[in-house]
Amino acid sequence: MEKTSPGYVAASAVRDKPRRRHSRAGGLAGLIWPQRSLITGREVAGPGALEPELWAKLQFLSDPLCQRCGTPFDIAVDDAQVCGACLANSPVYDRARAALVYGDVSRDLVLGLKYQGRRDSLALLGGWMTNAGAGLLADADLIVPVPLHYLRLVRRGFNQSVWLAAAISRSSGVDLSVDALKRIKSTPIQGGLSADGRRRNVQGAFRVRKGREARIRDKKILLIDDVLTTGATAEACSRALKRAGASCVDVLTLARVAAPRGIPI
Ligand SMILES: [Zn+2]
Q1: Rounded to whole angstroms, how far apart are CA atoms 40 and 28?
Q2: Does one domain contain both 126 and 207?
């Protein structure tokens, strides 16, 4: 995968970083179980969980953003502004938001979660997502994670999107349905595919599970995933949810490419 071009990221789109909090209990626990960096595994001071130099490289997203797809804008715009890609071709979902720009450090956080099962990152990452998606969570009736095909779930043993969704449900109080969506096609890993390739790859890959339709119908759904790249997966899930009668589908991810919609990484 290529790195996200920092050129796409407006300085104004990167907000102040959340403060790294320390507590007496955390300090005591830190003496007994030293805090390890979520990326390097080295000991770090306090519950920030990242070395200061890595922390400094994280790019948190905030307005101005496209109000539909969440792409950061370079200049301040009015509240209802949408990007050219959304004007030309509206996404299936209603709104997408992310906590971070997908770059070197956020990619390592995602990989740690996805392939090493770093559950110790969930409180931090879920907290960032809850902040970034506050407006979406305020409207949501139900949180639904992007599912894995059962063969991949058996191989990996967990679904990191379910973990993130559970953390966000706990911190926000919004209901969670971990199995409302089902992945019915085992699709190859999407990295390296073009935007069209990704779209074809996930076409018809998801559906609402039998017996879960009543939880979806006329509900505002907040779909959770780790990363949004071209948005092909988010759109395929949103299509399945809307076919089942969802009145609105928003998307919240930990990270997203800062490039306009349709450009793969
Ligand atoms: Zn847009």
Answers
A1: 22
A2: yes
